[in-house]
Amino acid sequence: MSLNHNQILQHCMCIVDSYDSGMVSVEEHIEQYFNNYQIYEEDIKAFIIEVFTGCIRYISVIDTVVNGFYIKDGKIALKSERSLYSVFCYLMLFRLDELGISQFRRFIYSQDINRVFKFLNFFLDERNLLTWIKDSWCKLYEHSFVQTILLSPLLRWHPELTDILTQMRDRIENKVKPKKSTTKNTEIKPFNITQPRARMVPLPEPIPKLAPHKPVPKHIYRTPTEIDRLNEAKEINRRIAEEHLIEASRKQFACANTEKSEKTKEIMSNIMAKEDAKLDFDK
């Protein structure tokens, strides 16, 4: 059975109140809570988990607002209502874009209007929000985070939230404006036009078959005769070069022969005879 807004909010408050960080982890507490209360709808479970983990993660941000409320405007508020104010503080800071103003209004009117009005009136008062609340947040987080994540979304919804506060104040003071009587708009009926007949889908044209390709000529893979001739000429030139090399090797040491010719011997003999004649002093 689907839960209404009051029941969902009560579960959010209860799971926050019953959590003890020194006894059990966040995951175990969530699992135990859903098993104990037999909550099986995935969308409701997801919403409760987001609210619970968000209240735990941003507890210092939320405590700044809630503690200030108890000190300033909530002196007669019950301590047991603290989780209610914590959940509403989290929803306004981090979930308004997701919920939308219509769903948020339903959560508000599912509770005691006097209690919720007093807290919202305190929190949305710019004399509190833009002064000491902002300064306290800046002591916890960087100024850019406070301005971008905390303040900007809330200030963007501030006109709509102020309208809700005005409506709540009027209801508390019994100044609810009577609803305007609305006349029923003329219903437009479509013309009774004959529906066109469905067009026949033409049969696809047959795909033409391609002519068989010609086989590759055999001479493409045969070695050209010019290459055979070149190889034959190379072989002949190689043999001639080898013969020239052998002949050159055989003749290269002919100049080193030490045997003297007959003419050389005759010249040397004449030279030695002349030298001997010069040394013969007795003649």
UniProtKB/TrEMBL annotation:
<dbReference type="InterPro" id="IPR039341">
    <property type="entry name" value="CFAP99"/>
</dbReference>
<protein>
    <submittedName>
        <fullName>Uncharacterized protein</fullName>
    </submittedName>
</protein>
